[in-house]
């Protein structure tokens, strides 16, 4: 269903070229197809085949910005969106930094993100994988006899950006995944946990990996109890580390910084984290599922160092925030068709430190190995940095994983967490959201329980 | 929205492969948003989403396809894809007679958002900004958002149902940032109704903005939240999300059927203190989760889930009610035509109880008073939930004293429900919410009277 590159870019270019004198027009056009198969009870519970397309149009005139989108590429709707964006632009207030980006000379990375084989995988094979995932998940442990859901899903899409300022960008990408939520039951107690396997092609996926991960995560929480309130050393598994650094990256967003909503504003060059910590956003790293050639404004994505040996190196910018802060876009514009470009990280990853997961854990005499966090959207304030989330995990005793705990919270501030990091593992793990995490140790955190 | 002959044809096409049931859901949604940030109107944006989702059920399997092409040919293609996805033997031609079903609206709309000049929407934003900044010199940043949507839906199915709804929502939110010696703090307040621009004839956005600003200023002087387990008094309205998370999700029939709810198999049992009656009510006029019909064409209704502490029923969608041979409850909802419906809440609230709210606080020697909760999250299998306090105070010697900083609360749904020991005779609905489940967001409302939970864990640092 996905058509060749010139088509979609041509649609975007045609809109951009409708710009009137003294007007800037940007068109972001996207189109994609997806499949999802859910298995339950040995049968196909649902099979969804979908394709969607849309266009977002931004108009800047007299430094005023207006935006409109349409969830179709239908000729009339596209023209309506342009007219509506023009009309909306009359109501924005002039801002001298409002302007579309221009080509900045950074060459696009040579990345092949297109799963060419996915197109040739039959629906029957996708159905078979979902059914197999459920069967395997429910046949390996007496305590896991059902799932809430076992799913195969894939998505492929292409996007194009064209502007009246000379941007011409096109790219396509795709991936697929297996996801299962296993229910572990023992002595009247039920625990649920998810397992995933993600890749670009079906051949990258592993039913065993997803099933075993879900089984391990669900069963090891059986018998969990509420821990005593105490101060404790946290050991974060790689995905938890990636989650926390994702929150920090949100505070290094040029928009938050310029608008006085980041505690890190004005602190470039200062030590904001333990010298053990280095992390970068590099969407040109093909190992990341967040890899992209162009950002949401059509500039080439590039490697941006955010924190190096604990020192804040800079912020992420789109065209607007870069211009207004006196620098330039870092190629970090993020968007969908229904919104103007924001700023964000695409492939945030920690630089590996020292030691395997087992070695890092082995050095902890008494701690908490955190395997899930809940309430991130309500418990983390990206402006103040206040941090309070629910946790589940396993206690660590004498360097070994011990009994499971639940119904507890940890609290601190993100600023404090960064400075207090005492160990960074070398066990870099790439995660489904495109980020990369390692095992991290942070001592002396308030744990609330009974 | 679409010719009835085309609908009948589409349903017939969908059933050609032998499906037991076919449904077409057509949606035409227009929305507009205006954002004020950093001292100026940043931009206005408008959107249009229009399309149809077609599902076919064969035995245990649902096939689903959607399209943005509402022509007869476009719909036929989607119907064939959905039918093929549900795959079975040949079924021949089924004739479907559609009967239009009227759906009483929870409330009328006086002023459609599309009929309001954009300049008036923008003016509200400036008014809110001025009011928030006027609340105190420490207010350093204000973000105000105006949003409206009009969502026209049509649902028809092979049982002969044909019904439509016209859903209008208007939302206004303000976030203020206050800066002081202790760093930055935020205050947020929102207002949303299933009505049009008349919302602003009734409520002044300046009041809303001042409340957001005052909440931010208050927190500048707030102490770190305590940590550990202690009594928590929930203020009226502000704590409704507790019930949404602590038990609402666990009463969704799809989760119950898969054994993923701690409330599975417990209908008829005592699950809460006898003071607790919990209702989910799609008919509640103007409240954020109100609807005339759900997204499967069932009439919105008021369903008692827990009566005087006894679990009376779960919430149902079409799929689950067909399987169990029972009536639907008006809880089958979907984010858009691109999504399959599932069991969702509407407006979920606890009825007022017998106790004096002031006395509830006076009878609490020490603990925390939560005036406002932010979002939350629940693990339905264990019942463990988490939610954030956005405005909370210490209770010392039976009095509400100092404000405390943000933090999460954590507890276990069934344990909390049965331990609630006082329920006030006041009641208020809370803020408009967006509930997420399996990647789909739908608008919901919640409400509670003042009540006390003897032991909840507060995740603070002090």
What does this structure look like?
- The complex is a heterodimer of chains A (450) and B (462).
- Chain A is an alpha+beta fold and 450 residues long.
- Chain A has two domains: 5-219, 2-Layer Sandwich (PmbA/TldD fold), CATH 3.30.2290; 224-450, no CATH class.
- Chain A contains ten helices and 20 strands.
- In chain A, the strands form five sheets. Chain A has a six-stranded antiparallel β-sheet with strand order 3-2-1-4-5-6.
- In chain A, 58% of the residues are buried.
- Chain B is an alpha+beta fold.
- Chain B has three domains: 4-30 and 46-100, Double Stranded RNA Binding Domain (2-Layer Sandwich), CATH 3.30.160; 113-151 and 165-220, PmbA/TldD fold, CATH 3.30.2290.10; 227-459, no CATH class.
- In chain B, a hairpin with a 2-residue loop joins strand 10 and strand 11.
- The termini of chain B are far apart.
- Strand 2 (43-61) of chain A pairs parallel with strand 3 (61-67) of chain B, so a sheet runs across the interface.
Question: Quick summary of this structure?
Answer:
Chain A is α+β, with helices and mostly antiparallel strands and 450 residues long. Chain A has helices at 5-16, 75-89, 123-137, 207-219, 238-251, 254-258, 319-324, 357-362, 376-379, 414-420; strands at residues 23-40, 43-61, 64-70, 144-163, 168-186, 189-199, 230-236, 279-281, 304-308, 311-312, 333-334, 342-343, 348-350, 366-374, 386-397, 400-413, 423-424, 429-430, 436-437, 440-448. Chain A has two domains: 5-219, 2-Layer Sandwich (PmbA/TldD fold), CATH 3.30.2290.10; 224-450, no CATH class.
């Amino acid at each position: 269903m996905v058509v060749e590159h010139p088509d979609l870019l041509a649609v975007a270019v045609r809109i951009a070229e409708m710009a009137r004198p003294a007007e800037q027009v940007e068109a972001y056009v996207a189109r994609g197809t997806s499949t999802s198969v859910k298995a339950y009870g040995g049968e196909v519970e649902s099979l969804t085949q979908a394709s969607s397309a849309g266009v977002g149009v931004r108009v800047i005139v007299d430094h005023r910005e207006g935006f409109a989108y349409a969830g179709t590429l239908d000729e009339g709707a596209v023209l309506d969106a342009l007219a509506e964006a023009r009309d909306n632009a009359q109501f924005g207030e002039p801002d001298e930094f409002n302007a579309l980006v221009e080509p900045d000379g950074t060459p696009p990375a040579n990345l092949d993100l297109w799963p060419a084989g996915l197109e040739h995988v039959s629906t029957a094979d996708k159905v078979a994988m979902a059914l197999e995932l459920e069967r395997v998940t429910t046949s390996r442990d007496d305590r896991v006899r059902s799932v809430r859901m076992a799913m195969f899903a894939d998505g492929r899409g292409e996007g194009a950006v064209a502007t009246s300022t000379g941007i011409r960008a096109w790219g396509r990408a795709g991936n697929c995944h297996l996801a299962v939520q296993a229910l572990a039951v023992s002595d009247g107690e039920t625990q649920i946990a998810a397992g995933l396997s993600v890749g670009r092609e079906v051949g990258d996926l592993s039913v065993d990996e997803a099933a075993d991960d879900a089984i391990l995560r669900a069963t090891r929480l059986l018998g969990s109890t509420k821990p005593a309130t105490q101060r404790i050393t946290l050991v974060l598994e790689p995905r938890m580390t990636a989650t926390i650094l994702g929150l920090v990256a949100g505070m290094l967003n040029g928009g938050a910084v310029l608008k006085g909503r980041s505690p890190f504003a004005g602190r470039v060059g200062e030590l904001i984290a333990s010298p053990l910590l280095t992390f970068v956003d590099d969407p040109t790293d093909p190992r990341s599922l967040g890899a992209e050639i162009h950002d949401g404004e059509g500039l080439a994505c590039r490697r941006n160092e955010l924190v190096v040996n604990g020192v804040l190196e800079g912020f992420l910018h789109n065209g607007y925030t870069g211009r207004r802060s006196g620098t330039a876009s870092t190629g970090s514009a993020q968007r969908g068709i229904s919104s103007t470009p924001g700023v964000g990280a695409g492939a945030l990853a920690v630089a590996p430190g020292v030691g395997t997961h087992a070695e890092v854990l082995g050095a902890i005499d008494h701690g908490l190995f955190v395997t899930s966090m809940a309430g991130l959207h309500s418990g983390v304030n990206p402006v103040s940095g206040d941090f309070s989330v629910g946790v589940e995990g396993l206690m660590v005793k004498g360097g070994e994983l011990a009994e499971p705990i639940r119904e507890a919270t940890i609290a601190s501030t993100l600023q404090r967490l960064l400075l207090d990091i005492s160990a960074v593992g070398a066990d870099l793990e790439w995660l489904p959201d495109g980020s990369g995490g390692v095992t991290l140790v942070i001592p002396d955190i308030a744990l609330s329980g009974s | 929205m679409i010719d009835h002959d085309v609908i009948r044809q589409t349903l017939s096409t969908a059933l050609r492969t032998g499906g037991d049931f076919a449904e077409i859901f057509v949606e035409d949604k227009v929305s507009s948003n205006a954002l004020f940030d950093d001292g100026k109107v940043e931009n206005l944006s408008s959107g249009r989403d229009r399309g149809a989702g077609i599902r076919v059920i064969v035995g245990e399997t649902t096939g689903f396809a959607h399209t943005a092409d509402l022509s007869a040919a476009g719909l036929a293609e989607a119907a064939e894809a959905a039918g093929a996805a549900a795959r079975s033997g040949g079924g021949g031609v089924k004739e479907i007679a559609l009967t239009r079903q009227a759906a009483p609206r929870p409330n009328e709309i006086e002023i459609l958002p599309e009929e309001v000049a954009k300049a008036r929407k923008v003016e509200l934003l400036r008014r809110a900004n001025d009011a928030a900044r006027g609340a105190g010199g420490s207010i350093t940043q204000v973000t105000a958002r105006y949003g409206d949507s009009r969502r026209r839906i049509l649902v028809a199915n092979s049982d002969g149902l044909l019904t439509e709804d016209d859903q209008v929502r208007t939302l206004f939110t303000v976030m203020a940032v206050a800066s002081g010696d202790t760093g930055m703090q935020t205050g947020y307040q929102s207002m949303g109704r299933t009505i049009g621009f008349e919302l602003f004839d009734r409520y002044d956005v300046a009041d809303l903005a001042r409340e957001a600003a005052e909440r931010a200023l208050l927190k500048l002087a707030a102490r770190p939240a305590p940590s550990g387990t202690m009594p928590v008094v929930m203020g009226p309205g502000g704590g409704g999300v507790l019930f949404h998370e602590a038990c609402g999700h666990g009463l969704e029939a799809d989760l119950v059927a898969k054994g993923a709810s701690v409330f599975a198999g417990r209908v008829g049992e005592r699950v809460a203190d006898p003071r607790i009656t919990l209702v989910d009510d799609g008919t509640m006029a103007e409240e954020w989760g109100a609807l005339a019909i759900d997204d499967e064409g069932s009439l919105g209704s008021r369903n008692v889930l827990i009566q005087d502490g006894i679990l009376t029923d779960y919430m149902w969608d079409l799929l689950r009610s067909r399987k169990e041979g029972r009536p639907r409850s008006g809880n089958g909802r979907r984010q858009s035509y691109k999504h399959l419906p599932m069991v969702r809440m509407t407006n979920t609230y606890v009825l007022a109880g017998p106790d004096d709210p002031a006395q509830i606080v006076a009878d609490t020697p020490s603990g925390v008073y939560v005036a406002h909760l932010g979002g939350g999250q629940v693990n339905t299998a264990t019942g463990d939930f988490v939610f954030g306090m956005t405005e909370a105070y210490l209770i010392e010697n039976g009095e509400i004293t100092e404000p405390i900083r943000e933090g999460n609360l954590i507890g276990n749904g069934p344990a909390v429900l049965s331990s609630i020991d006082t329920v006030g005779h006041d009641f208020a609905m809370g803020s408009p919410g967006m509930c997420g489940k399996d990647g789909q967001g739908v608008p919901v409302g919640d409400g509670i009277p003042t009540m006390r939970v003897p032991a909840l864990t507060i995740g603070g640092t002090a």
